[in-house]
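Possible regression after last week's pipeline update?

I re-ran a chain I had predicted before the update to compare outputs. Posting the input and the new output here so someone can diff against the archived version. Not blocking, just want to make sure nothing changed silently.
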Amino acid sequence: MTAGLDFENWTCPVPLRDHPAIVMGHGGGGAMSAELVEHLFLPGYGAAGAGELGDCAVVEAGGVRLAFSTDSFVVRPMFFPGGSIGDLAVNGTVNDLAMSGATPLYLSAAFILQEGTALADIGRIAAAMGAAASAAGVRLVTGDTKVVDRRSGDGVYVNTAGVGMLAPGVDIAPRRATAGDAVLVSGDLGVHGVAVLSCREGVEFGTGVSSDTAPLHGLVAAMLATGADVHVLRDPTRGGVAASLNEIARAAGVGVELGERDLPVPPAVADACSLLGLDPLQVANEGKLLAFVPPDSADAVLDAMRAHPLGAGARRIGTCVPDHPGMVVARTALGGTRVVTMPIGEQLPRIC
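New output (post-update):
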């Protein structure tokens, strides 16, 4: 019965994801989010939506290269160990700008408030945003406020947009990942996601983990000051390192190989993920970055990262390779390999 069948060319089909309505997985930063953009938003935008897709766009105005980004924050709970939706909104947008190599300058802040939310909580969020903006050296220059009824929201949602300026010659984008590049990370992984999860009703557990939310543009500036031709930067937020590396591999048409022993997953995060059946590589981060740099620059960039407070735990975790383009694999402690897949939906909804 099997005569004439070419098993080597068989592939496992992806799961059917034909949803007639939005589900939580569409907001997870994984494959379902990508499908929503590719098959719904971009066709709807038509020519008006042309351009590279990413967390930040580089545009030119009056001969000046600007970085422009927007983001929305719906994290639950609004206050969590190490931060709140307020500083998360500022730092998240600052970091999207920084991942293009830009110096962040200005932010907008728009609020959707649920009727009945305590004014004291809104005041805490506003104060956290102001403190985070001051610490990052950016100004909150415009905004908007809307209120929805008690059944239409969940406390406070925040939308921010940011503008930054790029120095001449800076070109940092996923398409620039090149075979041979060293893959670097600035520190421990999975911290933010576990910190938020640790205080949710029904899944509380004692971890002692605090969110790593922080502005990363100072760290990026230190990396660029080495003179290295940094090819790619990415802050692995929704979908974690797995989603970010898969997106980069596909954009550049290269493969990525990781060493599992080199991945900096702290014991508290590893224990929480083991307990809940989560993959630490798919857990969100908010104060870490990934970098692809030429191999002859890796040591200098790592030294610069380690000299900065937000990069003290920096290390090399992998290599960009010409094999298996568009795919990320990890070499296990036993010498085998496993595929690090793009998350389909959402491991941890409402995490940022």
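Follow-up from reviewer: compared with the archived run. The chain has a mean pLDDT of 89. Marking as no regression found.
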